[in-house]
Design goal:
Blueprint lengths: L2 E2 L2 E4 L4 E6 L1 E2 L2 E2 L6 E7 L5 E5 L5 E5 L4 E6 L1 H5 L5 E9 L5 E12 L3
Parallel strand pairs: 1-11, 2-11
Antiparallel strand pairs: 3-9, 4-5, 6-7, 6-10, 8-9, 10-11
Length: about 110
């Protein structure tokens, strides 16, 4: 079952957040995995940031650690107040698991 976590992003600043996936205290090995953050963008289409596009990095695959980093240029283009998101992880065997879901809350610049 996916975790539930709401995150805040400040428009026009770099957003960086690290995660660690464990089950019963043991890390989920992320070696060879693909990770995707997706949410609804300004016009209602799906925004996708991932290990493929470079905004998601697996930092320690044996310890289940990864991070998401969205540049100030990316967050400056956001114009929503709150949007639902999810983080899915695809394993080398093709299985896809939902790691986390919740709302992204945007703090707009003045």
């Amino acid at each position: 079952m996916a975790g539930l976590y709401n995150m805040a992003i400040k428009q026009g600043t770099t957003f960086e957040k690290g995660f660690r996936w464990t089950r019963n205290g043991e890390p989920i090995i992320l070696e060879g995995c693909s990770i995707v953050l997706s949410f609804k963008s300004n016009n209602g289409s799906q925004a996708v940031y991932s290990t493929t596009t470079g905004e998601v990095t697996i930092t320690d695959p044996l310890q289940g650690r990864f991070k998401i980093k969205l540049s100030a240029t990316i967050t400056n283009g956001f114009n929503w107040t709150t949007t639902p998101y999810n983080i899915n992880i695809q394993f080398p065997n093709g299985d896809i698991r939902r790691f986390l879901e919740g709302n992204l809350n945007l703090s707009k610049k003045a």
